[in-house]
Amino acid sequence: MDLILEKFNLVGFRLINDLAGHNIWLDRFMVFAADKMGYLLILSVLIIFWKKNYFKKVVFVSFGSAIIARFAFVAILRYLLYSPRPFLVLENINRLMNHSLESSFPSGHATFYFALAMGVYLYNKKAGHVYLILAGLVGFARIFVSVHWPLDVLAGALLGCFTAVFMNKLAKRF
Predict the structure, then answer these.
(1) Residues 78-81: contacts with CB under 8 Å, at least 24 apart
(2) pLDDT of residue 71 exceeding 80
(3) What is the CA 26 to chain-centroid distance, rounded?
(4) Rounded to whole angstroms, how far apart are CA atoms 119 and 110?
(5) What distance in Å separates the CA atoms of residue 39 and residue 66, rounded to the nearest whole number?
(6) Over the stretch 90-107, which tens digit does the pLDDT of each residue have?
(7) Residue 147 gets which letter from DSSP?
(8) pTM score, two decimals?
(9) Half-sphere exposure of 6 (CA within 13 A, CB side)
C-alpha cells in the first residue's frame, strides 16, 4: 500500500509541478493562489455574509472549523507523521516558492481553506461550490509551486471538510 501511495504522490506531483516554469503569468498566478489568495477568501466570507441572518453561524462554523483543523489537528498530525516537502527529496523540480522545512503532511493551507469552504457550503450551497473550487485551486497551487505532495492536499481537504461538518453539528446542538 505504501508503494501505491508513494507512486501516486510522485506521479501526481510531477504532473502538476511540470506545468510550472513555462509561462511567467501562470507561475505568478499560482504563487498568488498558493500564498495570498486565501486572504481574499477569508475577507470575502465576512463581506458576502455580513447582512445574512445566518452570519454568526456561518462565521462560527467556517472560521471555527478552519482554525481548529489547521492549528490543532494539522499540528498533531505533523508532530506524529513527518513527511519531507517535495523540494527536499526531489531533483529537477520547478520550485517557485520558499517554505519552511516542517512536515508537509497534511497541507495546512488545504485544511484551513477546505474547512472554510465547507463551512460556507453548509449554509449556502451556491457560494459553497465556488469556495470549494477556490480551496481546490489553493491546494493545486501548493503542489504547482512545489511545497506539497498531492496526498498532503487531499488529506488536508478531507480533514478540513470533516472538521466543518463536525463543527456544524456542534453549532446545531448548542
Answers:
(1) 78/102, 78/103, 78/105, 78/106, 81/105
(2) yes
(3) 19
(4) 14
(5) 13
(6) 999 999 998 989 999 999
(7) S
(8) 0.95
(9) 7
What CA–CA distance (Å, rounded) separates 145 from 30? 7
Q: In whole angstroms, give the CA distance from residue 40 to residue 44.
A: 6
**Integer angstrom CA distances of residue 73 from 10, 43, 161:** 25, 23, 12
* Whole-number Å distance between alpha carbons of 43 and 137: 17
Long-range (24+ apart) CB contacts under 8 A made by 20-28 are 20/94, 20/96, 20/144, 20/145, 20/146, 21/94, 21/96, 27/96
Q: Which three cell numbers stand for residue 36?
A: 495570498
Distant-in-sequence, close-in-space partners of 77: CB < 8 Å, separation ≥ 6: 105, 106, 155, 159
What is the Cα Rg of the chain in Å?
Answer: 16
